[in-house]
Automatic annotation (TrEMBL):
Domain G as annotated: residue spans: 194-244
Chain coiled-coil ranges: 250-277
Domain called NOA1/YqeH-like C-terminal: residue spans: 406-506
Region (Disordered), start-end ranges: 300-333
Gene: Noa1
Name assigned to this protein: NOA1 protein
Amino acid composition bias (Basic and acidic residues), ranges on this chain: 321-333
A GO MF label: GTP binding
Amino acid sequence: LSDPSVPPSGVSCSGCGAEMQCGDGGAPGFVPADKYRSLLSEGPAGLRGAVCQRCWALAHHGSALRLRLPPDQHRRVVSAALRRPPRHGRGPLLLYVLDVMELPDPVLPQLPALLGPDVPAAGVLVVGNKVDLLPADRRGHLGRLRQRVAAACALAGLRGGALVDIRLVSAKTGYGMEGLVSRLQRSWKCAGDVYLLGATNSGKSTLFNALLRSDYCKSRAPDIIDRATVSPWPGTTLNLLKFPIINPTCDRIFRRQERLKEEATKTEDQLSNEEKKCLNQLKKQGYLVGRVGRTFQQQKSSTEIEFDPDMLSYSMDEDPRDPPKKHEEREEFTHNEVKDARWCFDTPGIVKEDCVLNLLTEKEVKLVLPSHAIVPRTFILKPGMVLFLAALGRIDYLEGKKPAWFSVLASNLLPVHVAMLSNAETVYEKHTAQEFLKVPMGGEERMKEFPPLVPQDITLKGIGTTEAVADIKLSSAGWVAVTAHAEEELLLRAYAPKGTALVVREPPLLPYISTIRGARIPGTPAYRTKKPPSFVENLRTTGS
């Protein structure tokens, strides 16, 4: 399939930004040699807009081909990009994207070292992403989330003039995106290019795609620039992808504000059937939903990642005897459109160390990373009881005088089981890598390479029966919020796979989450689950 004699193309994959080549099947940007030659034979436009074999596999099968990447390649690419000479006489604006569920963000403290003293940045705008996945535990939960993000920024040394703003969004459902676009447009006069930074799986590429389809991007760019490959597999973006930022002139800002005012007066009943269908689908996926529109060009409404089969660089069912298909003429930017443009770059995600996702297969990653709104699962445990989160985490309630509540916030696909401490080891040994505990999967052979669970003792003091005292965060598998009677001391022992981070998060992210539950299920320690309703911003409710 590979042919080392053919030189690299000099053309970037439109999905991940890697230079396309057919010489090394284990390196980024690989295209099978026959397909590569076929695309080259079609002239300069042949490779432009195509995707590599890896991006094709991610988009169509959700599988990532194993690549040989130096451990620090992502950091090198990002660091080198940030050290480019400033354009337009202004330093870059850094758009740091963090997953609010991952607080405290493991990469944020590395940001000063990544930038170094010689990067004259215009500032850092921190975007807390994936807020749509978290249920509202009480009125004002977004304000409390923002405070947690601000505390993480201060801990990392981001404060004062260096921290431009903090925004909470969902790049997937569109919540908060119009507000983010407005805030970015207000930074036009004091910033040059914009760089999206963040850890793997923080949602950078999804945010990049959302901005590409918004008023932040030049009006013709969505027709010319392909979207970044979006997948739960960590480290999807291998190089720099970019789009040109539109100049927010007074006229454009006025027209945009008029559009936003008009859309805010609409009710759901006034939306088109296509808009209603899209909205209902997003409401099933998240608690918070937004409508992202375009002022300067009609936008096709779609919730799927669009890949034109005729433009793909690789096809599993392609018959090599068929003549190569002709590509349609692609639009291109004119020289005047981009000669003085400012660009928004999507950068490779910084790989999180001590992360359980690094130990998992692609099938396991899909089960562990939440893709829909998390439904909290609450259990009441007495001393001597144990809670399992799949086979990725375990919490033993060792000592305490009264029962305590343990609320699990993790992917709805991960099983939670409660056992007695006396037979916990038997449960783990019997059901690990089996359907009962689900992840890891693959039986005894899988467990030979999976690290053992290691313990950490934790002492907590309760503050009341409706407010959690702390979260026990089991790396990226999820967390358990612990709620106990006031002044009640608990001795817990938490387990996570060896080499992964187990964090006690105080204060908890959603302190009142144990109240989001149904009635107790008779004869069990579990409560019935309760899913709060979804909220759509920029849409008038009927009767208001």
